[in-house]
Amino acid sequence: VTYTVFMTSIIYPVVVHWAWSGNGIFNYGDGQSIVGPSLIDFAGSGVVHLVGGIGALTGAIFVGPRKGRWDPATENEFEGHSIPFCVLGTFFLWFGWDGINP
User: What does pTM read for this prediction?
Assistant: First the structure.
């Protein structure tokens, strides 16, 4: 919960300001920004996916691999997935996509 609150209240607003405001560091008003060519973010998907991807990578690095996943003594006993959870996750993704793209 702390990670989510930090991402949505501090990280995301700062990056959005940089990209979408008229005076952020990725400003596209004059065709240049402080980091080179300006950013043109069609429908906001670039910023959303940039922050989400970096957040997911950071979370995965912080949490690390699953316990017992790389243990040679139990590598044949490790179960890698659960079919009901895979199906449930697919339904969640489909429902979210369908809500955005009716």
Answer: 0.62
